Amino acid sequence: MRRRRACPPVPTSEFAGFRFPPEVIILAVRWYLRYALSYRDVEELLAERGIDVDHVTVYRWVRRFTPLLIDAARPCRHTPGDRWFVDETYVKVAGRWTYLYRAVDQSGQVIDVLASEKRDLAAARRFFTRALSHGRRPVEVTTDRAAFYPRVLDEQLPAAHHVDDQYANNPIEADHGRFTARLRPMRGLKRLRSAQTIGSGHTFVQNIRRGHYELGVDADLRNRLTAAFTELTLAI
């Protein structure tokens, strides 16, 4: 008796099992990451289009699909530059101030973000390990004068020139303002994971709009983000 050849499994869309179509889900996620909106704001905007979605559902969509979109876009991302500006900003999680490590390069691309409960050597190590996974080792790194940065750079980037002069880190400090403005309409974050998701999602949208991904490149600048999210919807 001849055996039947096993067929390869058919890839399952990440949208399988959801009641709403991918276009609605991705629209809600894009609105939330792009604009200074709360989950309830997104619920209201969808209701104006005749789409009845609870704000808790929008929250779950953002949590689930933001990392998937970022992963799908990874092959399209431009390589970061070789001059990095690294700093931390504050985020309130469950009523307590926590830290969000961020880095930008000389062209304004946000390289990575990391939410951390502590501002210490271990957190800085984790952040640089993540940031270096994006494919380029910088020749110059500018930080503030926190005592742990020289040790981390000696360990992970011994050949890089370390700058900690006063005001040298202005590019990343100015960039923090865009993220903190995004947080204002929110009623606070409950978990560190949420801070990481929102931080990563905001960075992702910002980088697309600044042209650091080969996504939506044929669209008008005002429609680049919409075109990019449409492309990514097909990829996940």
UniProtKB/TrEMBL annotation:
Keywords: DNA recombination, DNA-binding, Transposition. Residues 82-212 form the DDE domain. GO terms for molecular function: DNA binding. It holds the Pfam family DDE_Tnp_IS240. PANTHER family: BLL1675 PROTEIN. GO terms for biological process: DNA recombination; transposition. This is Transposase and inactivated derivatives-like.
